[in-house]
């Protein structure tokens, strides 16, 4: 399989880690949908967004939730990262949704603050994003365990999304992590002991 998207993308990185934890081989195309590479991305996704996962039979899959759902549906025995049914599935998906929402707002902050020329920035929008991002971090901090993972002894899909969200904020706008999130930081450190996380960590 071929995965389009850099490790800085919290969505492409989620798929890369998901595949690694399931023991799947993936060829990486570390590109962003900008400049000269945008046409290459649009050749596989008409909206021009990553991640894109091209399966071995040539099928092109887009959007992180859809791709991860397929990866779980076709996972080897015992390798699902979201429980198949019941309360455990609902709880995992809710944690994952919170982490995903945090990532979305953190990405929005990058476009607004890091990339938009200063004279065109919207302070009220940045203030709102700051409140949302810090709210998401606080929510995940409350859910993060003191030991192990939210998924138990091994990380599940919500652990992946939570760690990625935190590390994306650290890499792009670390000033947003206020107040500190020691439990979430501890979860991330435990995750980084696993190659799937350590080998995909974006540069700060």
Automatic annotation (TrEMBL):
Pfam families in the cross-refs: GST_C_2, GST_N_3
Top-rank taxon: Bacteria
Gene3D superfamilies registered for this protein in UniProt: 1.20.1050.10, Glutaredoxin
Residue ranges of coiled coil: none
InterPro entries assigned to the protein according to its UniProt record, in alphabetical order: Glutathione-S-Trfase_C_sf, Glutathione_S-Trfase, Glutathione_S-Trfase_N, GST_Omega/HSP26, Thioredoxin-like_sf
Domain GST N-terminal intervals: 1-79
Entry protein name: Glutathione S-transferase
Organism: Paralimibaculum aggregatum
Highest classification ranks of the organism: Bacteria, Pseudomonadati, Pseudomonadota, Alphaproteobacteria, Rhodobacterales
